[in-house]
Amino acid sequence: MVIEWTQPNERIKTDGKLVRAAKYVRMSTEHQEHSTDNQAAAIEKYAEQRGFKIVKTYADEGKSGLQLSGRDALKLLLADISEGRADFSALLVYDVSRFGRFQDPDEAATYELLCKRAGIAVHYCAEQFENDGTIGSSIIKTVKRAMAGEYSRELSVKVFAGQSHLISLGFRQGGAAGFGLRRMLVDQSGKPKTELGQGEHKSIATDRVILVPGPKPEIEIVREIYDRFCRDGSTELEIAQLLNNRGILSDFGRQWTRGSIHQILVNEKYIGNNVWGRTAFKLKQHHEDLPQEDWVRADKVFEPIVDQNIFDQAQVIIQTRSQRLSDEEMLKFLRTIYEKNGRLTGLIIDEANDSPSSSAFQSRFGSLLRAYTLVGYAPDHDYRYIEINRSLRRLHPVILQDIVAGIADSGATVSQDTATDLLRINAEFTAAIVISRCKLTTGGSARWKIRLDEALKPDITIAVRMDEDNRKPYDYYLLPRLDMREAILRMAEYNGRSLDAYRCETLERFYSLTARARLMRAA
Fold it and tell me: Model's pTM, two decimal places?
């Protein structure tokens, strides 16, 4: 028996009027074939067949469906519905999994119930059942939600197994090489191809990355760090100050700190070991520090630049520093750091003078998270960004006026749209100013996220990247709309030539572009 779940040509009875509807599309990183364009086409065909008029689109591109966090379009959709701003009576979604691959099927049901209670019917356009509230559709929908969550669980297991296998073979899985080391691209047979620079990545799926010794001067600095720590008894802070006084910069082009020296002293990659999986964030549920027996490792797979014996000496010294302290004395250090900084991370702990290292806390208490709990710190949410964003909003008009003044000083004419702050220069092209907050990773690397204004469509976007303290501009990017393929750019300190070609230290280049040139009049 064949059950026909759908009637594709059946139109909604609306007395000749089309039903106002919104569409929601999501492209997951693991399902590129379900692009938002393909989803939109299927939804629009469904709307045409069923008598819907799509009046609004909500799109999350490249977003995982495991949780609501990070899915700005879905959050906006739910807010519009719950706050009475929705001017539509139907929501069209490609299929059940596009709404979400939540690990708890009831979570997706909750969001659909929110729509129903507001009088908004949810239609799954590519599913072979009608979402009409009957027992058959309810059972199928529940099974589909559970299958969507199970797919993510299975994929997580497969990805982890694949990454673990590559680690065991001696291949690097992401992350910066580190001072004194470099990333080498090799083909599938292990033959070296080229050295990868900052921000460069492999482009062929079968290629792999390994670590190799870097320039000789850097290798000598790494060995000097170990010698001064193990044989001279210098602390991490003393070594950092010594290198800074000599004008030697770290691999990120910054001054050395206690924490950056400590990371060199504890990382096994300097003795040729490939270690991965110290922490886990499976299915984006919660972060956890894993015990050493669960780490994935392959020893002696890279060429070492530090002798095993002196590395072992460094670990003994680091562990011994905290052995003479009781648990309460160590927690007292941690409370002091917490009270001073308002939050805790491994990097903050390693930067604190005269305190045990983050690895010592992890070894003593089993994990950093447990140590955090013992001093009353819950690291689930960090709201410091709110005050930073407020500060940047206050700074935006100041930077904007400085840019307007610079354009005027170049001899160009400039007008400003008071509603959007869009600049029109020489009545020929437009420019928008975007300020990007700097965010540091747990390893101390700077990251920026730049959102291009798709509604205004400026000819040039002046992206102002802030420094680590988010107090002043770090650099600028002049981004022409014709060359930008994505609405959101996620940037590191080095982003490859395709993006860094637009980078400049100051805006003098931009001001020179706006200047009018004098032309000789023909006789």
Answer: 0.49
